[in-house]
Structures are given as C-alpha cells and as structure tokens.
Design goal:
heterodimer, A: alpha+beta, FAD/NAD(P)-binding domain, D-Amino Acid Oxidase, Chain A, domain 2, 8 helices, 20 strands, 27% strand, B: mainly beta, Folate-binding fold, three-stranded antiparallel beta sheet
Chain lengths: 403, 84
C-alpha cells in the first residue's frame, strides 16, 4: 500500500462518557482494543467502553519489539500463538489498514550441545502442533543470514538453529489504530486520559468502575491492563501470580535494507531484526529486579550491545539511536492468564510478559468470545487463572523472558 | 532519556555498581489469607508486586557475598537511603 495516498486514521472519539456500558475494558492497548473490536465485529456487542489512562497504545503496545512468532515450547501455547500468527496475516485484509505486516522468518540460534537439543525439541513440538519450524545446520543458517559471525567472535560458535519461516513483524501503532478505528466505527467508546481509580461493588460482584471521569456502571469489567495489573487487582483484593519487570530495547541508526530475518539467541539473551525504516532493532531479557520505571539502564545498553556484536559484528559500526523501556507482567509460569478471576463479573487478560504483541489478535478474539458467550473458549482454557490453584501451570521454556 | 546508573551501597564494600548484586525479595503473605491451602497457594505463586517503596534483599555476588537489606522505590528505582 502506498503510504503517500493512505487515508488518515478515522478515529471517532466519543463526545461524552456514558454512565453505564454493557462491557468496560480497562486498558486501551492492543489487547483491550482488539477485544472491543471483536466484540463489535463478531458478536454485535457495541455498548462497550475502553478506558485508557494515557493515550491508546501508549503502554506496552508502544514499547515492544513487534515480533510475531508461534515457536513456543508447549502444545497449548503453540496452538494459541499459531492461531494469532495466522490472524495477523489476515489483519490487513480484515481491517482495510496497512499494518506493515512482513513475514521475515526467525532463526533461533544454538551455541552449545544443550542449545542444539533445545532447538531440535522446539522444531519437533512446533511441527507436531501445527506451526512450521525446522532444525537447520550452519550452512543453511549462513544462507538465511550471511551477516552472522558463525564463530561468535570465537566465544559463541553457532552449532545450529531452529528456523521458523512464518516469523513476522508488524508496525505496533498501526495495529493499535486499526483495531481502535474498527471498534469506534461500530460505536465502541474509547476514553483516553481517563484513569480507573477503583471498582464499584455489589457484595462480591463488580458492577462498574470509578474513574477520573466519574463512576461507570458495567455488566462486565475486563482488565486488559499492561504493567499495573497487580495494583488494579489489589483494589478488589485479588492476588495475582505476577511480577512486573522492565524490558529494554534499542534501535541503531538507519542503514540499507539488507538484514532479512529475525535472529534470536537464548545463549546470548539477545535478538535482532531490521524494521522497514532500516534501523537495527535489538532487544534482550528483562531486568531481574521488579520495577515500574521507564528509565534506561547504562548497564543494559553496554551488555546488550556487547552480546549483539558477538552475533552480528557489523553492528559495531552502528550507533544507538533510541532506547525505550516497557514494564512487563511476568507470570509465574511464563504463560498468559486469560479469563475468569474468581471475582464475579471481573475478567482479566494479563500475564503478557514479553510476549503480548504477537498475541493481540487471538487474545482479543478469544476474550471477546468469552465475554459474549460466558464460556471459556477451548483455545484459552489452559490459560485460566485457576490453573495455579489446580496444579496445572503452563511452564513454557519457549517464552523464557525474551520476546 | 534518563540513563540510569544504579549503584548500591554495600555496608561491607562501599558503593558498587548494581551488576555486582543479585536481587532477592522478602516474601509476604497477607494476614487476611488464613486457610492453609490458600496460604500455600499464595506462598508458591502470588506476589504483592508493590508499586512504591519495597524493602528487599540483595546478595553481593561479586563482592563480599553477603546479603544486605535496602528499600527501593519500584516506580523510579530510587534507593532513598542509598549513599551511592
């Protein structure tokens, strides 16, 4: 699509906050807006408000590294993320918006025998549960990504990799705007600069929210909050298996569009890709001490730059242009939490840690179905909050704190 | 952008870079949770994850290898009593 003739985003902001809605969604990021979009488009539920503290997409939806992949480590996750990946592939057609979706292929590199076993296992489990991933040898790796130093600067030699050809990326704010536009066209209210300060209760039940724009009654309240969900949940006495950690990323200055795939390394804890603008986008692991700050860390930039150069020596000649920090809700088992909370009429979609962007379409679609039908869809049933009490945790080594 | 250079004041070694330390926490189970099974569940999985000043433990792994206690504001990463 030619950007020069592209339409302006048609966001129809509501003129006022109504005193009651059928559904109130807290959080105007990708997940909240996608939930509203699918409620309106698939289920005809349009008396919906999305309450956003800042502006839409200003939280983790605007602070991620836009990687879309399905090569996770457990069957339930592979099925869910594969569905989301396929939805992303159809998103431009569905919304009529260019979200700059690009299939790039993703290499996950092994630097040791243990790493080779892990990547072989990843390829096997992905293939068995419907996502394409194959194990590739060093020669194939070089064909896919000639910029890689196969000796890893003599310290991190590349033994092999798993290759996920459907790995992709999309433009984060365009995804947010596409969902917001589609939802608002059908009458969904999106209220920006409105913070939720408490819940309205009737006994145990949640019957609405207190906001900086007044009280709003709601048939169902959904938390699609990123980063501050434990603070919100504590307002109704709900305990969550979540810690909030900072995740930093940076981009370099721009150069010729010459880097094809997305490259990740668990051993080095780093991953790299080249978005359409030509910058090199580098991300790493979460900071270990829980925090909500958006500040940048010198130690992160230094160590992440060092590790990424071990993989891709050409980065040495580039400069760090921009850095940002997201605050990630890391669940105890590195899997998302979707569905009922035990508090009547309060639903959550959370635990999106460092893997939330890729899950926006499927997360929104499945939450919308849950709200519309009152029943948990099979695809997200394994990710219910009560799995922790029922000894059914979804420990996933394939998500493991990176992207 | 603000570049953070977090330092921690170790009572044994003096002011050192945060990379020398490993974060630990002091787990807390709310008193309101009384049933043994609910307390076990909370101990195993749940977190207060406070947005504000928390008292926590840090292990000086690349120094004296002793634990220290400090208060840190999770909203800013400021350590109010830190001399670093």
């Amino acid at each position: 699509m030619n950007e020069a003739v592209e339409r302006l985003v048609d966001l129809r902001w509501p003129s006022q906050v109504k005193s009651a809605y059928d559904v109130v969604i807290i959080g105007g990021g990708g997940h909240g807006l996608a939930t509203a979009y699918y409620l309106a488009t698939r289920h005809g539920i349009t008396n919906v408000a999305v309450i956003e503290k800042g502006y839409i997409g200003s939280g983790n939806s605007g602070r991620n590294t836009t990687i879309i992949r399905a090569n996770y480590g457990i069957p339930e996750a592979v099925r869910f993320y594969q569905h989301s990946l396929e939805m992303y592939g159809r998103l431009e057609q569905e919304t009529g918006r260019d979200v700059m979706h690009a299939t790039k292929g993703l290499l996950w590199i092994a630097h040791s025998e243990a790493g080779v076993r892990q990547e072989r296992a990843r390829a096997e489990i992905n293939t068995a549960f419907g996502s394409k991933t194959e194990y590739v040898d060093p020669k194939t790796i070089q064909d896919i990504c000639p910029q890689l130093d196969m000796t890893g600067q003599g310290v991190w030699p590349i033994y092999g990799a798993s290759y996920h050809p459907s790995g992709a990326s999309a433009r984060h704010d365009r995804v947010v705007w596409a969902y917001a536009e589609g939802a608002m066209r059908l009458g969904v209210h999106v209220h920006q600069r409105t913070a939720v300060t408490g819940f309205l209760r009737d006994g145990d039940r949640v019957v609405g929210v207190e906001t900086t724009a007044g009280s709003i009654a709601a048939g169902v309240v959904v938390s699609a909050v990123g980063g501050h969900v434990t603070t919100l949940a504590s307002m109704v006495g709900l305990r969550l298996p979540i810690r909030t950690h900072q995740l930093q990323a940076f981009v370099t200055n721009r150069y010729a569009q010459a880097f094809g795939p997305i490259v990740a390394s668990s051993g080095l804890g780093v991953y790299a890709s080249q978005p359409a603008k030509g910058e090199m986008l580098i991300g790493a692991e979460i900071d270990r001490a829980p925090a909500y700050a958006y500040d940048a860390g010198h130690s992160f930039l230094r160590s992440c730059a060092f590790r990424s150069i071990a993989l891709l020596p050409f980065l040495r000649d580039l400069r760090v242009l921009r850095q940002w920090t997201g605050v990630c809700d890391m669940s105890a088992d590195y899997s998302p939490i979707m569905g009922f909370t035990g508090v009547p009429n309060l639903l959550v979609t959370t635990g999106w840690g460092t893997w939330g962007f890729k899950a926006i379409p499927a997360g929104g679609e499945q939450m919308a179905e849950l709200i519309a039908t009152g029943r948990t869809p099979a695809l997200i049933a394994p990710f219910a909050l009560d799995r922790f009490a029922n000894d059914r945790t979804m420990a996933d080594r394939g998500s493991a704190g990176t992207h | 952008m603000t570049i953070r250079r977090l330092r921690i004041s170790c009572p044994h070694c003096g002011v050192r870079a945060v990379e020398e330390f490993v974060h630990g926490e002091i787990p807390t189970i709310p008193e309101g949770i009384v049933e043994p099974e609910a307390r076990d569940l909370d101990r195993a999985f749940m977190h207060t994850n406070a947005e504000g000043v928390v008292v926590e433990r840090w292990f000086h792994a690349f120094g004296c290898r002793r634990w220290l206690t400090l208060a840190r504001d999770t909203r800013t990463n400021d350590i109010p009593d830190n001399r670093g």
